[in-house]
Every structure is written in structure tokens, then in C-alpha cells.
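#struct-queue
[09:14] JT: dropping the first one here, sequence first, then the C-alpha cells:
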Amino acid sequence: MEEKRIFGDNCRVGIIGSGSWATAIAKMLLNNVSLLSWYIRDPKNIKTFNLTGRNPNYLTSVHFDISKIFFSDDVNDIVRRSDVIIFAIPSAFLKQALEKLTEPMSDKYIISAVKGLIPDENMIVGSWINKNLGVPINHIGVISGPCHAEEVALERLSYLTLACQDIKLAREYAQLISCHFIKTTVTDDIYGTEYSAVLKNIMAIASGIFHGLGYGDNFQAVLISNAIQEIKRFVDTVHPIARDIKSSAYLGDLLVTCYSQFSRNRTFGTMLGKGYSVKSAQMEMLMIAEGYYAVKSIHEINEKYQVSMPITDCVYNIIYEKVSPVIECMLLTDLLR
């Protein structure tokens, strides 16, 4: 007997965010939904998008069928028109994006594609949505990698994990984004996948710093081996359930973020290793490196848990304590095995 679906064929889906990851997710969704509602903050960008069929700022090679998209610069329009809402916006700006939100969210289904923590509250996004928007925790899903938006734009085969405490709902969320170039798997480990997605950005900054300092592939292998152990120690302490840290949602996401040419966190770290100041690196990148915010939040959270996190401590000391990358990285090399 076929399992009854939560969402019908006419499921209304909305996206909050207009960056590269939001654009990639829209590309996936339009394989499966007949109309997509999309919040873009700047009306000038909406006008350009409607004229050209392309996001004027991100993944500009991707062409969209505009007849299948409703754009609005009013977040309430998108919420009203959507049953499922996907947040794909840097965590540091999520609260700002929702400042004018007046529509109730408690009856909505939410998917977080945000790979970061709410900085001033040190909360993972799922917990923040549950607490501040009144969305039931079992209605909240999380998209985790390994997957870079740039390869989605090229329709290169990619894999995503959908996490939700309601595993049936996780499977339905997965169906929304599955297509000929996206394969999906599901898990109920919403907390572990969120924290892992936060931590891998920190590890990628470390990878970039060492790369910028001239360390080679031999050392990178040791660094990443220690990084996945550090992630495991932290997530097992914060949310102790059975999980396979070697699966793609954890180890796979870490690897692609630390090694890929598209990784903005690795790029940010490489610039720091080459001698850029934090501010100058941020200005030159013109994109958000989530690990910059994440490392401060994780450092503060870990004051409670006291997990051994030498790589995270190294990145924190370089970025926030302004310790020389040469000195800090040399100290870390003596701690790795």
C-alpha cells in the first residue's frame, strides 16, 4: 500500500534568500514544483531577474523559466503563498531578513539550508526557528551536503542529506529537491547535521590557512583526519545519539568544503595564511565565509562543554585573538596525530 503523502502535487514552496545556494536550490526545486515563490530583498535585482531570466549576482549562467517563479521583496508575500519555506541566507543575516515578518509561521513546514549559527544567540538555526517562530521541531528539516552551488549550476551529479526528526517528512523534503543530477538520503539527526555543517566551515578555514602558509597535501590529510575526529567529539557531546560520522552528511561535507576550489571558507583561510588581515580578506571576497562567525559561537558554546578542539581553538585565536597564523599553526602541528 502506497504511503500517504504529507504534501500533494500542488505543494506551494517558497525560498527566502537570493545568494548562490538559494539559486542552486531554486534550480533543483523547479524540476518538481509548478510554481516557486522567491523572496529577494532588492527590487532592482527582481526587475533584472525578470528581464533576463537569470540571477544578476549569483550563478549567472543558470537560466530560469520566469513564468514558474513569483518574486517579491516582501517576505510576508512569500510566507502567505507557501506551505514549505526554505531558508537559504547567511545565518548572520537571518534575523535581519525576517525583521518585517508578521505572517504566522507555526503551521508552516520549514527547511533550513543555512550552514551556520545565529551569532549573538549561539543557536543552531533549527532551534532558533522553533523557539522564535513557533514552528514545531518535527516540522523543521535541514539540508546538508556535500554539495557546492557552482556544481549544481553545471548539473554535475551531487548528493544531499535531508534531516528531520520526522523521517517520513524528511523523505518528502528529499522528494522536493531530487532530480536527475541530485541524489538524496535522509536522517533524523537534525542536531548533528546542523552542528557538523557549522564545524566543517571552521575546519575549511584551517585548511585554507595552512594552504596559504605553504603546507602540502601530506599535512592536509592529517589535518582533515583530525578535523573529523574533532567534529565527532563535539557533536557526540552536544547531542549524543548513534550516528555514522563517516557518512556523506558529515565526512563528505567536510571533505568538499576543505578541498574544493569553490569553498569560500577555504578561500578565506588561504588569504589569512598569505598575510591578509581578516577585514581585508572579507572585503576582497565579497561573499560571506560562515566559518568567521561560527568559530566565535562554537568557542563560546564549548566553554560549557570543554571538548578538546585544538583546530577550532587555532582558528579562533588567529581570527579573534589576532595571533600570528605562523605561530598558531606551528603550535597546532605538535598536537595533531
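[09:21] JT: and here's the second one, same format:
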Amino acid sequence: MDIDAFIRQAAQGWRLEEKLWIAPAGAAVAYSEARRQQNFAIEDLSFWFEHRNRCLKAVLRRFPPAGVFLDVGGGNGLVTRYLYELGIPALLLEPGIAGCRHALERGVTHVLCGRFEQLQWGAVKAGAIGFFDVLEHIEDESGFLNCAANALEAHGRLYLTVPAWPLLWSHLDIEAGHFRRYTAAGLERVLQKAGFRLLYTSYFFSPLPPALFFLRALPFRLGWARPAQAHAIPKSQHLSGSPLLRRLALRFLAGETIQLGQGQIPWGASLICVAEKNVSRVPA
């Protein structure tokens, strides 16, 4: 099934307006629209977003998707556009109108503005779903993952990235609207409960945990850093203002993409995971 046919069936009752498919009712946005705008200004120049895409590419080569790939909560369309570059038929689902418009500016051609649970999954299913730094923003993670299991074809695949280690919790997690950080074991448990079979999991951004602990988590625990201080984070932390530092950071991290293409990384500030819908189980 092509993407246009998929949209016509999954988004019945949605209206097409200025190249956007918009849900009938307003979508609740968990992620700050101001922060979405901040991200849009730095994403294309950020070492962090670029390295995450490269890690995703390595994992997608090992565990390729089939069918339509639905990028859920895909923000400004950075990952969706990257999926296009990899030759993967993808569409973006994003509740925030600003992110949807940014995605159109980036050249994403199939954009749905609404919530995951507003789509209809009777006559059509997705071949693959991506939650890229999305699940930590969802208070009801079990309900959200159950919805993903229902939306996938038999043996369809779920691709996730999430922030790792509760020990690294800081004011920036609060400012970003996170409900939790994950361990590999904890993520596997919630996926299995929702009716998924884990195919692969690994940490990445392996050099970052000590810096995040001492510069963010420890000051937060000691009361030296409060959420109100987090509004000024973007350029310095993403190295988007320094092309030289960005190149050096990407070169320093390049070995991780090789490791992910061959095995796993036991430690890091983020997790990447591939799970398959387990057709022999009903979600709890």
C-alpha cells in the first residue's frame, strides 16, 4: 500500500489544509511549542541530532522496516526527512502545528497533524512505527505502547530512542516535559507487557553520562539548578554555533555507529531499541 492510500484509510475524517492532514479535534501537545521552535533553529547544525540519525541508520540496516513507516511525535520532521534519504516510505504524525509546518519546510511531503490515538486502524496497519525521544513525554506509556501494538501489522516493528538512566534525571528533564528516563531492562519490561518481542537494544552517546551527572544531575539533586534555568540551553549544548566543534564531536562519536552495526554498546546517555509485534500475545 502506498502512503496516500494509507492516509486515506487511517485518517478518515481528517481534513486536508495547506498540505497538512489535520485531525477533527484539537490535539493535545505534550512538548513545548517554544522548545520545538528552538529545536528547529538548531537541529540541522546539532551534533546530537546528527549522531542520533547516524545511529538510527546503523540499526535500520541491521533490522530493516517493511511497509509504511509512521514517525510518531516526529516534531519538525528531521527524522522523517532522514528516512526519505534512506529510501524508506515514511510519514510524519505530530500534534503540534508548528512542528508540522516546519516539517513541510524541510521537504516532508506527508504530514498528519493530530494524536496517535485519533488514527483508525481497522482496515489498515503500519509496517513500522518510530518513537524517537517521544515515549518519555507520555505519562501513560502502557496505553501508548498498546496503541502502537494495535497499529502495527503482524510482525511489524517498533523503533525507539529514549533518554537513559534515572540517575541522570535533572532540571532539563523537567523543562523538556519528561516523565522518566529508562534502563535497558526497564524498557524491555514495558515493551513485553504491551505485547512486543525485543529484537535489539543498545545504549549510545557513551561518553556523555559522567558529564551529564556532574554538570546536570548532581547540581539538581543538591538544589543548585532549577527548571527555570533550562530555557537557555540550545546552541552551547548542541555545538550548533561552532562547525569545528561539531565536526570533532561527530568524529569522536563515529565509532558508535560501527558498534551499533555489529553489536551493542553497554553504556550511554540514550537507548535505541527495535521491537517486533508479538502476534502470540495480547497486550496486558
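[09:30] RK: nice, looked through the second one.
[09:31] RK: The two ends are 30 Å apart (CA to CA).
[09:31] JT: good to know. The longest helix spans residues 243-262.
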